[in-house]
Amino acid sequence: MYAGFWKRFAANLIDSMILNIVIVALFFIYFIIMYTVIGTYQLSEVYSEGTFSEMFAAGAGTETTALAVWVILMLLFLFVFPFIVYWLYYAFMESSKHRATVGKMALGIVVVNNSLERLTFGRATGRCLGRVVTNFTFYIGYIMAAFTERNQALHDLIASTYVVNKEHLEYENKRAEYDGGQYAGGYGDGREN
Length: 193
Known about the structure:
This protein has helices spanning 5-38, 40-49, 52-57, 62-79, 81-94, 102-107, 121-135, 140-143, 154-159, 166-178; strands spanning 109-112, 162-165. It has 193 residues and is mainly alpha-helical. It has one domain. A two-stranded antiparallel ribbon has the order 1-2. The protein is elongated, with a radius of gyration of 23 Å.
């Protein structure tokens, strides 16, 4: 029923490649736009004047201001924008009708809540934020999926979510219909949620 560690690992690898390609492409577009807006002449003139500290100490000349804006926007883009892309990708995909990211769809696994239902956008966001916490454990939180009873990683435990094989989920749904809608739901072994 629950997706194994290696299946989840492969799905995560696919998703990481997709996200990296998107972020690098957007970064490239951003760099071209910013370079065009500020102007190659201004940036080359400011850069040739000296170090960054000397430029900022010299005051807020037009070129220095342009470079400062460029640097601030670059830092925001490097640190904030990738997280926004990451969050929207995971939260929208895992709360969609597919219940899975592209990588999970490719491996035939889906993310569900305790009742084997689709996640809300809020819970999918919580799961995404839980992934940030999992990353801070030096990826030990991901490895937990290989050893926990229901193959839950740390972010699954935080958000009360499960990654299950899509085939099994479809079987549970058919079983619920067969039981006349009387199926209790949950883990598929008779336990309450």
